[in-house]
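Lab manual, section 2.4: Encoding a predicted structure.

Procedure: take the sequence of the chain (128 residues), apply the prediction step described in section 2.3, and record the output as structure tokens. A sample record is shown.
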Amino acid sequence: QVQLVESGGGSVQPGGSLRLSCVHSGLTHGPYCVGWYRQAPGKGREGIATLGSDAWTTYADSVKGRFTISQDNANQILYLHMNSLKPEDTARYFCASDALVSWNPCTPQVHYETIEDWGQGTQVTVSS
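Recorded output:
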């Protein structure tokens, strides 16, 4: 059974940085996709970054150049490094995973309802 637990959210001023973590367990031994989605109040859940088991990364245009997804494979931790944060980045951030046969292509453009496993989310607020 897959378990995903996010942490690292908080409040930060515009221009600041945060690092989100997602400890995961139970991922398929085969090819997989992991990623980060976010949901702002009154809006749908949108994908922002993905990482495949082949180490390929993909980003939404809204975060490209500011956010970086990475993984500590030994400790099964997925990270999202967020720099140059803007008020519009305020949202609840979710870690997600699925086998590549389901989450294909491994990109953040895949609709969230297609993805099997989710964490509970961590809140990020960007405000002066």
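Check your result against the sample. The radius of gyration is 14 Å.
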